[in-house]
Amino acid sequence: GAQKDRAVTEAEWLRKWETGNIGFHKERGHPLLQKYLDVLLNGRSGLRIFFPLCGKAVEMKWLADMGHSVVGVEVSEQALKEFFAEHKLPYCEEPVPEISGAKRFQSTSGNISLYCCSIYDLSSSIIGKFDGVWDRGALVAVNPCDRQRYVSLMITLLEKNAAYLLVTVSYDPNKHKGPPFYVPESEVKSLFG
Ligand code: SAH
């Protein structure tokens, strides 16, 4: 469709963070996570939950406070530092031996681990597999040409009984250039198979 060839570079994302052009960030968290929390957890406790393209999503703090362990990935180091600062969470920072240039920010309490690198640098051998995924502003932020690669990677990160919550947006792709990009339901189905 209209957005097929559109691409946002990593440098452009970093610039959005530097200039505070982050209208996507929801200070009070996303109402759909509250609404569908039971679907994500399905009565289970102590889950490993993945936040692809996490930004400084406050939902990471919510789930960690409920006793789950949270892993996120984000290219902007500024976003990750703001996350820890805004929640007054002490953290430590270390290199990731498997990925050159990547850093891992881990809360001192240990249950929030955020990777500063591209999601395409990760694999289940580095971050393991997950019981749940909160995909908001992630599939819809990925460049249209990278969607299948992104989804194929996400599938390799899922445990057998994983729950995957996906938020998309519906609008006329001829009227806005995105991101967020328009990913129709039919495409979601074919991407995930
Ligand atoms: N999910 C978050 C942020 C959405 S905006 C929320 O709900 O608030 C998309 C984020 O993805 C931006 O912060 C951007 O810096 C980051 N990003 C873009 N491409 C990425 C990539 N390839 N790997 C990791 N993070 C990426």
UniProtKB/TrEMBL annotation:
A GO cellular component annotation in the UniProt record: cytoplasm
Binding site for S-adenosyl-L-methionine: 13-24, 53, 74, 118-119, 136
Family, similarity comment: Belongs to the class I-like SAM-binding methyltransferase superfamily. TPMT family.
GO molecular function: thiopurine S-methyltransferase activity
Domain of life: Eukaryota
PANTHER family: THIOPURINE S-METHYLTRANSFERASE (PTHR10259:SF11)
Protein name: thiopurine S-methyltransferase
Main location as per UniProt: cytoplasm
Secretion signal span: none
Biological processes annotated in GO: methylation
Protein's cellular compartments: Cytoplasm
PROSITE patterns documented for this protein: SAM_MT_TPMT
Organism: Psophia crepitans
Catalysed transformations (reactions): S-adenosyl-L-methionine + a thiopurine = S-adenosyl-L-homocysteine + a thiopurine S-methylether
This enzyme's EC code(s): 2.1.1.67
UniProt keyword list: Cytoplasm, Methyltransferase, S-adenosyl-L-methionine, Transferase
InterPro entries listed in its UniProt record: SAM-dependent_MTases_sf (IPR029063), Thiopurine_S-MeTrfase (IPR025835), TPMT (IPR008854)
